[in-house]
Design a protein that fits this description.
The protein has one helix and no strands. With about 70 residues, it is an all-alpha fold. The chain is rod-shaped.
Length: about 70
């Protein structure tokens, strides 16, 4: 390793690379926030659909039981 100080060109290149990394980190953080928000929305939607599915299943079972009851009584 050399005891010489980096040249102005080297400092400028390192500075440019650091700026690019900072910009990338900001972009990735924003993308991460967006993906997390989408995930939360999808999870809420899924929970809602599961609840609706369960309600529909219960209604169908109730109808089947009523039909069986009518069949037995008729």
């Amino acid at each position: 390793m050399s005891d010489r100080a980096p040249s102005p060109e080297q400092v400028a290149e390192i500075s440019r690379q650091v700026e690019q990394l900072v910009a990338l980190a900001h972009r990735l953080a924003e993308e991460n926030r967006s993906l997390r928000a989408s995930q939360e929305q999808l999870m809420a939607e899924r929970a809602n659909l599961l609840a609706k599915n369960e309600q529909a299943r219960s209604r169908v079972e109730a109808m089947i039981n009523r039909l069986k009851s009518l069949e037995q009584n008729g």
